[in-house]
Amino acid sequence: MKIFSGNSNPPLASKICEAIGVEPGKCAVTAFPDGETFVKIEENVRGQDVFVVQPTSPPTNQHLMELFIMMDALRRASAKRITAVIPYYGYARQDRKDQPRVPITAKLVANLLVAAGANRILTMDLHAQQIQGFFDIPVDHLYAAPVMYRYLRQKELRNLVVVSPDVGGLKMAHAYAQVLGAQLAIVAKRRTSPTEVEAMTLIGEVEGSDVLIVDDLTETAGTLTSAAGLLRHRGARRIFACISHAILNELGIERLRNSEIDELITTDSVLRPEIDGVKITTLSVAELLGEAIKRIHTNSSVTSLFDFKNAKNQEPAVSGKIEKAG
Q: CA 112 to CA 142: how far, in whole Å?
Protein backbone atom coordinates (compact mmCIF):
# COMPACT_ATOMS: atom_id res chain seq x y z
CA MET A 1 0.00 0.00 0.00
CA LYS A 2 1.23 3.47 -0.88
CA ILE A 3 -0.31 6.88 -0.17
CA PHE A 4 0.44 9.88 -2.36
CA SER A 5 -0.66 13.50 -2.04
CA GLY A 6 -1.06 16.39 -4.44
CA ASN A 7 -0.73 20.02 -3.43
CA SER A 8 -4.31 20.40 -2.17
CA ASN A 9 -3.85 19.28 1.45
CA PRO A 10 -0.41 17.75 2.19
CA PRO A 11 -0.81 18.11 6.00
CA LEU A 12 -3.90 15.90 5.96
CA ALA A 13 -2.12 13.26 3.87
CA SER A 14 0.82 13.31 6.32
CA LYS A 15 -1.53 12.82 9.29
CA ILE A 16 -3.25 9.92 7.52
CA CYS A 17 0.12 8.25 6.91
CA GLU A 18 1.10 8.82 10.53
CA ALA A 19 -2.23 7.42 11.79
CA ILE A 20 -1.81 4.13 9.93
CA GLY A 21 1.97 3.87 10.16
CA VAL A 22 3.08 4.15 6.53
CA GLU A 23 5.58 6.43 4.85
CA PRO A 24 4.15 9.04 2.43
CA GLY A 25 4.72 8.16 -1.21
CA LYS A 26 7.36 10.16 -3.03
CA CYS A 27 6.18 12.21 -5.99
CA ALA A 28 6.82 15.61 -7.52
CA VAL A 29 3.84 17.74 -8.53
CA THR A 30 5.07 20.93 -10.16
CA ALA A 31 4.03 23.40 -12.83
CA PHE A 32 5.61 24.58 -16.07
CA PRO A 33 5.95 28.35 -16.57
CA ASP A 34 2.75 28.37 -18.65
CA GLY A 35 0.78 26.77 -15.79
CA GLU A 36 0.67 23.19 -17.06
CA THR A 37 0.93 20.57 -14.32
CA PHE A 38 3.78 18.06 -14.34
CA VAL A 39 3.83 14.93 -12.18
CA LYS A 40 6.58 12.41 -11.58
CA ILE A 41 6.12 9.38 -9.33
CA GLU A 42 9.50 8.93 -7.68
CA GLU A 43 9.21 5.34 -6.48
CA ASN A 44 8.10 1.98 -7.78
CA VAL A 45 4.32 1.37 -7.69
CA ARG A 46 4.05 -1.67 -9.96
CA GLY A 47 1.41 -4.01 -8.55
CA GLN A 48 0.77 -1.73 -5.56
CA ASP A 49 -2.52 -0.66 -3.94
CA VAL A 50 -2.28 3.13 -4.29
CA PHE A 51 -4.28 5.90 -2.60
CA VAL A 52 -4.15 9.51 -3.82
CA VAL A 53 -5.24 12.10 -1.23
CA GLN A 54 -6.47 15.23 -2.98
CA PRO A 55 -9.49 17.28 -1.83
CA THR A 56 -10.77 19.52 -4.63
CA SER A 57 -10.61 22.72 -2.60
CA PRO A 58 -9.91 26.08 -4.28
CA PRO A 59 -8.34 26.50 -6.76
CA THR A 60 -10.66 23.64 -7.68
CA ASN A 61 -9.74 23.23 -11.33
CA GLN A 62 -6.02 23.16 -10.63
CA HIS A 63 -6.37 20.54 -7.91
CA LEU A 64 -8.65 18.43 -10.07
CA MET A 65 -6.10 18.47 -12.91
CA GLU A 66 -3.36 17.48 -10.46
CA LEU A 67 -5.49 14.52 -9.36
CA PHE A 68 -6.23 13.43 -12.95
CA ILE A 69 -2.57 13.64 -13.96
CA MET A 70 -1.34 11.84 -10.84
CA MET A 71 -3.73 8.96 -11.43
CA ASP A 72 -2.75 8.76 -15.09
CA ALA A 73 0.92 8.60 -14.09
CA LEU A 74 0.18 5.86 -11.55
CA ARG A 75 -1.88 3.86 -14.02
CA ARG A 76 0.90 4.05 -16.62
CA ALA A 77 3.35 2.95 -13.91
CA SER A 78 1.28 -0.27 -13.53
CA ALA A 79 -0.31 0.38 -10.13
CA LYS A 80 -2.64 -2.51 -9.33
CA ARG A 81 -5.50 -0.38 -7.91
CA ILE A 82 -5.90 3.39 -7.61
CA THR A 83 -8.25 4.87 -5.00
CA ALA A 84 -8.95 8.60 -5.21
CA VAL A 85 -9.30 9.91 -1.63
CA ILE A 86 -11.35 13.09 -2.02
CA PRO A 87 -12.47 14.29 1.43
CA TYR A 88 -14.12 17.31 -0.21
CA TYR A 89 -15.71 16.60 -3.61
CA GLY A 90 -15.89 19.81 -5.61
CA TYR A 91 -18.62 20.64 -8.14
CA ALA A 92 -21.03 18.62 -5.98
CA ARG A 93 -23.54 21.49 -5.97
CA GLN A 94 -23.93 21.13 -9.74
CA ASP A 95 -25.70 17.78 -9.50
CA ARG A 96 -28.83 18.46 -11.57
CA LYS A 97 -30.30 20.67 -14.27
CA ASP A 98 -32.17 23.29 -12.27
CA GLN A 99 -32.46 25.70 -15.20
CA PRO A 100 -32.28 25.42 -19.00
CA ARG A 101 -28.99 24.77 -20.81
CA VAL A 102 -26.77 24.12 -17.78
CA PRO A 103 -24.40 21.17 -17.23
CA ILE A 104 -24.45 18.46 -14.60
CA THR A 105 -20.82 19.02 -13.68
CA ALA A 106 -20.78 16.63 -10.73
CA LYS A 107 -21.43 13.80 -13.20
CA LEU A 108 -18.81 15.14 -15.62
CA VAL A 109 -16.17 15.14 -12.85
CA ALA A 110 -17.17 11.57 -11.93
CA ASN A 111 -16.63 10.49 -15.56
CA LEU A 112 -13.26 12.26 -15.70
CA LEU A 113 -12.07 10.59 -12.48
CA VAL A 114 -12.82 7.16 -13.90
CA ALA A 115 -11.27 8.04 -17.27
CA ALA A 116 -8.09 9.21 -15.50
CA GLY A 117 -7.68 5.84 -13.81
CA ALA A 118 -9.63 5.76 -10.54
CA ASN A 119 -10.74 2.26 -9.55
CA ARG A 120 -12.42 3.41 -6.33
CA ILE A 121 -13.50 6.65 -4.61
CA LEU A 122 -13.25 7.48 -0.90
CA THR A 123 -15.02 10.70 0.04
CA MET A 124 -16.74 12.36 2.99
CA ASP A 125 -20.01 14.27 3.48
CA LEU A 126 -21.04 14.77 -0.13
CA HIS A 127 -23.27 17.77 -0.78
CA ALA A 128 -25.81 15.37 -2.28
CA GLN A 129 -25.63 11.66 -1.47
CA GLN A 130 -27.03 10.68 -4.86
CA ILE A 131 -23.69 11.70 -6.40
CA GLN A 132 -22.52 8.20 -5.42
CA GLY A 133 -24.78 6.98 -8.23
CA PHE A 134 -22.87 9.05 -10.77
CA PHE A 135 -20.03 6.51 -10.53
CA ASP A 136 -19.89 3.01 -12.00
CA ILE A 137 -17.03 2.16 -9.62
CA PRO A 138 -17.25 1.58 -5.84
CA VAL A 139 -17.70 4.70 -3.69
CA ASP A 140 -17.11 4.72 0.07
CA HIS A 141 -18.93 7.72 1.53
CA LEU A 142 -17.86 8.57 5.09
CA TYR A 143 -19.45 11.01 7.54
CA ALA A 144 -17.63 13.45 9.81
CA ALA A 145 -20.47 13.15 12.33
CA PRO A 146 -18.78 10.60 14.67
CA VAL A 147 -15.78 12.93 15.00
CA MET A 148 -18.07 15.92 15.57
CA TYR A 149 -20.16 14.02 18.10
CA ARG A 150 -17.15 13.07 20.20
CA TYR A 151 -16.23 16.75 20.50
CA LEU A 152 -19.78 17.98 21.10
CA ARG A 153 -20.51 15.61 23.97
CA GLN A 154 -17.60 17.18 25.88
CA LYS A 155 -19.40 20.53 25.87
CA GLU A 156 -22.10 21.41 28.36
CA LEU A 157 -25.01 21.78 25.94
CA ARG A 158 -28.33 22.57 27.60
CA ASN A 159 -31.72 21.96 26.02
CA LEU A 160 -30.04 21.40 22.65
CA VAL A 161 -31.86 22.05 19.38
CA VAL A 162 -30.28 20.90 16.10
CA VAL A 163 -31.13 23.22 13.23
CA SER A 164 -30.98 22.59 9.50
CA PRO A 165 -30.27 25.89 7.69
CA ASP A 166 -32.35 24.72 4.72
CA VAL A 167 -34.74 21.93 3.79
CA GLY A 168 -32.02 20.08 1.84
CA GLY A 169 -29.99 19.50 5.01
CA LEU A 170 -32.88 18.06 7.00
CA LYS A 171 -31.67 14.46 6.80
CA MET A 172 -28.25 15.36 8.22
CA ALA A 173 -29.81 17.49 10.97
CA HIS A 174 -32.21 14.69 11.89
CA ALA A 175 -29.29 12.25 12.24
CA TYR A 176 -27.44 14.66 14.56
CA ALA A 177 -30.59 15.22 16.60
CA GLN A 178 -31.09 11.47 17.05
CA VAL A 179 -27.51 10.87 18.16
CA LEU A 180 -27.40 13.88 20.50
CA GLY A 181 -30.91 13.36 21.89
CA ALA A 182 -31.91 16.84 20.79
CA GLN A 183 -34.92 18.57 19.32
CA LEU A 184 -35.04 19.49 15.62
CA ALA A 185 -35.77 22.77 13.85
CA ILE A 186 -35.55 24.06 10.27
CA VAL A 187 -34.84 27.47 8.80
CA ALA A 188 -36.74 28.06 5.56
CA LYS A 189 -34.62 30.29 3.35
CA ARG A 190 -34.83 32.15 0.08
CA ARG A 191 -31.68 32.63 -2.00
CA THR A 192 -31.59 36.06 -3.62
CA SER A 193 -28.24 35.56 -5.43
CA PRO A 194 -25.31 33.09 -5.47
CA THR A 195 -23.78 34.93 -2.49
CA GLU A 196 -26.88 36.33 -0.74
CA VAL A 197 -29.40 34.40 1.35
CA GLU A 198 -32.42 35.77 3.16
CA ALA A 199 -33.63 33.64 6.07
CA MET A 200 -37.39 33.71 5.97
CA THR A 201 -38.88 31.72 8.81
CA LEU A 202 -38.10 29.22 11.58
CA ILE A 203 -39.98 25.94 11.98
CA GLY A 204 -39.48 24.88 15.60
CA GLU A 205 -38.71 26.46 18.98
CA VAL A 206 -35.26 27.62 20.11
CA GLU A 207 -35.95 30.13 22.86
CA GLY A 208 -33.56 29.67 25.79
CA SER A 209 -31.84 26.72 24.08
CA ASP A 210 -28.35 25.96 22.86
CA VAL A 211 -28.52 25.65 19.09
CA LEU A 212 -26.39 23.54 16.74
CA ILE A 213 -26.56 24.42 13.04
CA VAL A 214 -25.34 21.53 10.87
CA ASP A 215 -24.42 21.65 7.19
CA ASP A 216 -22.02 19.95 4.82
CA LEU A 217 -20.16 23.01 3.54
CA THR A 218 -19.96 26.78 3.64
CA GLU A 219 -18.11 29.20 1.42
CA THR A 220 -19.64 32.67 1.64
CA ALA A 221 -21.36 31.81 4.97
CA GLY A 222 -24.53 33.53 3.78
CA THR A 223 -26.83 30.66 4.78
CA LEU A 224 -25.06 30.18 8.13
CA THR A 225 -25.00 33.79 9.28
CA SER A 226 -28.51 34.55 8.08
CA ALA A 227 -29.85 31.52 9.95
CA ALA A 228 -27.85 32.43 13.07
CA GLY A 229 -29.28 35.95 13.07
CA LEU A 230 -32.82 34.60 12.91
CA LEU A 231 -32.13 32.06 15.67
CA ARG A 232 -30.69 34.74 17.98
CA HIS A 233 -33.73 36.91 17.29
CA ARG A 234 -35.93 33.98 18.33
CA GLY A 235 -34.15 33.66 21.68
CA ALA A 236 -31.36 31.10 21.15
CA ARG A 237 -28.93 31.08 24.09
CA ARG A 238 -25.72 29.91 22.40
CA ILE A 239 -25.24 29.18 18.69
CA PHE A 240 -22.77 26.59 17.40
CA ALA A 241 -22.24 25.55 13.79
CA CYS A 242 -20.95 22.13 12.66
CA ILE A 243 -19.70 22.34 9.07
CA SER A 244 -17.85 19.44 7.47
CA HIS A 245 -16.06 21.52 4.83
CA ALA A 246 -15.37 25.18 5.64
CA ILE A 247 -14.12 26.57 2.32
CA LEU A 248 -14.20 30.16 3.47
CA ASN A 249 -13.47 33.08 1.16
CA GLU A 250 -12.97 36.68 2.25
CA LEU A 251 -16.71 37.42 2.18
CA GLY A 252 -17.45 34.36 4.32
CA ILE A 253 -14.75 35.25 6.87
CA GLU A 254 -16.05 38.83 7.18
CA ARG A 255 -19.62 37.60 7.65
CA LEU A 256 -18.54 35.15 10.37
CA ARG A 257 -16.70 37.92 12.23
CA ASN A 258 -19.93 39.92 12.39
CA SER A 259 -22.26 36.96 12.96
CA GLU A 260 -24.14 35.60 15.97
CA ILE A 261 -22.25 32.28 15.81
CA ASP A 262 -20.36 31.58 19.05
CA GLU A 263 -18.20 28.75 17.63
CA LEU A 264 -17.67 27.21 14.21
CA ILE A 265 -16.71 23.52 14.39
CA THR A 266 -15.25 22.04 11.22
CA THR A 267 -12.73 19.49 9.93
CA ASP A 268 -9.34 19.57 8.23
CA SER A 269 -10.78 18.12 5.01
CA VAL A 270 -9.65 21.32 3.27
CA LEU A 271 -6.56 23.41 3.94
CA ARG A 272 -7.23 26.91 5.28
CA PRO A 273 -4.98 29.73 6.45
CA GLU A 274 -5.22 31.01 10.01
CA ILE A 275 -8.31 33.19 10.49
CA ASP A 276 -8.38 35.94 13.09
CA GLY A 277 -11.51 37.24 14.76
CA VAL A 278 -13.53 34.01 14.41
CA LYS A 279 -13.59 31.13 16.91
CA ILE A 280 -12.98 28.10 14.70
CA THR A 281 -12.34 24.62 16.11
CA THR A 282 -10.80 22.27 13.56
CA LEU A 283 -11.16 18.52 14.18
CA SER A 284 -8.92 16.12 12.32
CA VAL A 285 -10.51 13.39 10.18
CA ALA A 286 -7.13 11.81 9.45
CA GLU A 287 -7.78 8.79 11.70
CA LEU A 288 -11.21 8.28 10.14
CA LEU A 289 -9.82 8.36 6.60
CA GLY A 290 -6.79 6.30 7.63
CA GLU A 291 -8.97 3.58 9.11
CA ALA A 292 -11.06 3.53 5.93
CA ILE A 293 -7.91 3.24 3.80
CA LYS A 294 -6.65 0.31 5.93
CA ARG A 295 -9.97 -1.50 5.60
CA ILE A 296 -10.18 -0.91 1.85
CA HIS A 297 -6.63 -2.23 1.47
CA THR A 298 -7.44 -5.40 3.43
CA ASN A 299 -10.86 -5.80 1.78
CA SER A 300 -12.58 -5.41 5.16
CA SER A 301 -15.94 -3.79 5.83
CA VAL A 302 -16.05 0.00 6.22
CA THR A 303 -19.75 0.09 7.16
CA SER A 304 -19.15 0.90 10.82
CA LEU A 305 -17.19 4.02 9.81
CA PHE A 306 -20.13 5.68 8.11
CA ASP A 307 -22.92 4.38 10.31
CA PHE A 308 -23.15 6.61 13.37
CA LYS A 309 -26.82 6.18 14.26
CA ASN A 310 -25.95 4.12 17.33
CA ALA A 311 -23.07 6.38 18.37
CA LYS A 312 -25.02 7.53 21.40
CA ASN A 313 -24.66 4.08 22.93
CA GLN A 314 -21.12 3.31 21.84
CA GLU A 315 -17.73 4.86 21.19
CA PRO A 316 -17.14 6.11 17.67
CA ALA A 317 -14.85 3.90 15.60
CA VAL A 318 -12.14 6.56 15.66
CA SER A 319 -11.60 9.77 17.55
CA GLY A 320 -11.19 13.27 16.22
CA LYS A 321 -8.16 15.27 17.30
CA ILE A 322 -8.58 18.99 17.83
CA GLU A 323 -5.95 20.58 15.63
CA LYS A 324 -6.53 24.24 16.39
CA ALA A 325 -9.02 26.53 18.00
CA GLY A 326 -8.87 30.29 17.78
A: 22
Edge-to-edge strands of the sheet including 161-164? 196-203, 183-193, 161-164, 210-218, 238-246, 263-267, 280-284, 321-325
Which domains does the chain carry? 2-142 (3.40.50.2020), 146-283 (3.40.50.2020)
Residues with a known catalytic role: 189
- Say whether pLDDT at 297 is over 90: yes
- pTM, to two decimals: 0.89
Assign 199 a pLDDT band (cuts: 50, 70, 90). Answer: low
Q: Is the per-residue pLDDT at 20 higher than 90?
A: yes
